[in-house]
Each structure stands twice: as C-alpha cells, then as structure tokens.
Design goal:
heterodimer; A: mainly beta; seven-stranded mixed sheet; four-stranded antiparallel sheet; about 0% helix; globular; B: mainly beta; six-stranded mixed sheet
C-alpha cells in the first residue's frame, strides 16, 4: 500500500515552454501532497505543499507564478513549470502521507527528471 | 527552524562489513526521525523510522538508534551487500514536515 506515482518519469522541453508533471496516490486518498526539487548529489528541497481544494503553500524563495500547483482531486496533484529555462532542469519528486498518519510521514514518488534545452 | 547535519557524506565499505551513518538535529521538539534510501534516478524510499518514545528500532539488518538528550540518531546497517549501495538521507520532524540531511553516499564493494 501507500504507492505514489509520477508521470512522466523524464521530460525534455525547449526553453520558454511549459511542462506539467503529475503526482498520483494510487491506492489511497491524499488531501496533502508535497513537491520537492533535487539537484545532482544534493538533498531534497521542499518547494510547496499541495492541498486538495485550496491553494498550495509555497516555501520561501519559490516562485508561485513559475511553479503552478493544482490539487484538484484526492488522488492527483500537478506541478506545472511555466516558461521553463535551463536553470529549471532538475529532479522533481512528490510525496504524500499514507492514510491514517500525520503529515510528516511521507511516501515518495519515483521522481521526474526535467531537462530544459 | 530545524537543522539536520549528516555524516559522513561518503562511506565506502567492503561487503559484509557494517556501516554507520550519523545525524544530529537542533530542534528539541522534533519527535519523528525517518531514514530514506535513494537509488540513482529514483525517489527516496522509507527504510526505517523511529519516534522519540523509543531509543532503538531494528528491522533485519537495519537498526536506528536515537539519543534525544544529545539530539543525535544513527543508522546501522550490518552485513552490507552490494545492493545496499545508494544515497541515504536522514530527516527530523514532528508536527511539521521533516527536514532532510544532506545525504550519505554508501558504496559497498564486493
């Protein structure tokens, strides 16, 4: 149980275009999901908390207009990188707490590798 | 906020040896300490966690110890195998989202 999936697993896009990444909880409902960014050989950096039916909460320094988050259902959160630039290239990972646990317990998705050319 | 320090950044061992990774945290309110294993190109996988009401937890070859007074916790892997090679992250949290350490790259040589 508590499986989180992401799609796509990797994506290449041209500078200036937008790309959408999906995060799904496969066997449970998640009112809260989290989006992380990870640079090579570095730790996970929390970008935002996605809340079903309400606006996402962004961490300090994360541009909310650039990284659009939508949590329209109890099993799906999306992250859209708008007007992507090469510096947005990174590994994006989502997570969700399994049912019946507190928000600080997380199960991670497999990640999405974004390359902006 | 919470600050988590993790050491070493790289750990190289021979197959069959033990490996120990240590973390310290700063916020005495933290009461949940998970450990994650991340293989190349994949998302982190929770391998073991411990809460502040216990001092040690074991799961087969993996164990975690916690010293709340000193604010440090450690991951112990015994009888290491090549498939244990990965990056390991510690984290500390409580009523908030865990803060992650910088990671330890464990290399197990056959």
């Amino acid at each position: 149980g508590a499986v989180v999936s992401q799609h796509p697993s990797w994506v290449i896009c041209k500078s200036g275009t937008s790309v959408k990444i999906e995060c799904r909880s496969l066997d449970f409902q998640a009112t809260t999901m989290f989006w992380y960014r990870q640079f090579p050989k570095q730790s996970l950096m929390l970008m935002a908390t996605s809340n079903e039916g309400s606006k996402a909460t962004y961490e300090q320094g994360v541009e909310k207009d650039k990284f659009l988050i939508n949590h329209a259902s109890l099993t799906l959160s999306t992250l859209t990188v708008t007007s992507a630039h090469p510096e947005d290239s990174s590994f994006y990972i989502c997570s969700a707490p399994p049912p019946g646990t507190f928000t600080y317990e997380q199960y991670f998705g497999p990640g999405t590798r974004l390359t902006v050319t | 906020g919470e600050n988590v320090e993790q050491h070493p950044s790289t750990l190289s061992v021979q197959e069959g040896d033990s490996a120990v990774i240590k973390c310290t945290y700063s916020d005495s309110a933290s009461n949940y300490f998970p450990w994650y294993k991340q293989e190349l190109g994949k998302g982190p996988q929770l391998i073991i966690d411990i809460r502040s009401n216990v001092g040690e937890k074991k799961d087969q070859r993996i164990a975690v110890t916690l010293n709340k007074t000193a604010k440090h916790f450690s991951l112990h892997i015994t009888e290491t195998q090549p498939e244990d090679s990965a990056v390991y992250f510690c984290a500390a949290g409580g009523s908030y989202i865990p803060t992650f350490g910088r990671g330890t790259s464990l290399i197990v040589h056959p």
